[in-house]
């Protein structure tokens, strides 16, 4: 199981957070990247003013990100497995691990531009497990799911609920708050990293170098004094207050006059990662077994 010891998890020198997007198109206004180093200086946006593409984020992580960076991506790094003993129960091609899941999605979506994942969710077999637009609920969407019809959840998402969050099933692709599309496109990125940046907890945490983890920006926002249901920040004053709560050096009240909630989420979460990277309990959560680590993965920050 990929975990980290106290020595290894305390040696990061930079902390990055990426607010991700599964929206259609070459570039996505919902993507934001923030970075900070050790100390108390507030995180800064990477390439401010740029409208990122998913491929550009992949290239930045792989080729331009500082060494020894703990980078968090706001997406689900896998799909539920533990509840049914499979990602896609009843499908002969259902993978046995998260790494194999990423490869399957990337292979099926090889012709989808911009790291899109439409071909996978429309696949004759895979589509049976998703809830899609137009009232198209797959025959297996509720297999093993809660009676509320919200879809299946990973074990880390059940733990998120206990911390006051409201996660959505990665099999749900409908609604403004759904995260399924961003998670599936993100899995293509994780596969294309090709091991150059290890992904915790699927991969061991090395003694040096960068590591990528899954984050849930609401956890960081709550630590910054926001309520789970009102965690979004869209003003410079609110951003400054949140960063100060996280121990950052105060920023000027008008330093980010055009801040949007995606950029604010990334900046706040980068600061939160810096504060929590050395907490051994977050690298060894009590509910994460070796099997769960290799199949469903885990959200960093969920103890």
Helix and strand sequence: HEEEHEHHEEHHEHHHHH
Q: Which spans have pLDDT < 50 for at least 5 consecutive residues?
A: 1-7
Fraction in helix: 25-40%
User: What percent of residues are in strands?
Assistant: 5-15%
Shape, per Cα inertia axes = globular
For the CA atoms, what is the radius of gyration?
A: 18 Å
Distance between the termini: 16 Å
**Biggest sheet features:** 5 strands, mixed
The counted number of beta strands is 7
**Into how many domains do the coordinates divide?**
2
Number of helices: 11
This entry's quaternary arrangement is: single chain
Helices and strands: which structural class? Answer: alpha/beta
User: What would the average pLDDT be, to the nearest integer?
Assistant: 93
Strand order of the largest sheet: 3-2-1-4-7
Would you summarize the structure shown here?
With 303 residues, the chain is an alpha/beta fold. The chain has helices spanning 6-9, 54-64, 98-108, 118-121, 155-162, 180-192, 217-223, 236-245, 261-276, 280-283, 290-295; strands spanning 14-19, 32-37, 44-45, 69-74, 131-132, 136-137, 211-214. Helix 3 (98-108) crosses helix 6 (180-192).
Verbal overview:
The chain has 11 helices and 7 strands. The protein has about 300 residues and is α/β, with parallel strands linked by helices. It has 2 domains: about 5-75 and about 195-285; about 100-190, no CATH class. It has a 5-stranded mixed β-sheet. Strand 2 (about 30-35) and strand 3 (about 45) form a beta hairpin. Helix 3 (about 100-110) packs across helix 6 (about 180-190). The longest helix is centred in the C-terminal third of the chain and has 16 residues, at about 260-275. Residues about 1-5 have low confidence and may be disordered. This is DUF429 domain-containing protein. It comes from Altericroceibacterium endophyticum.
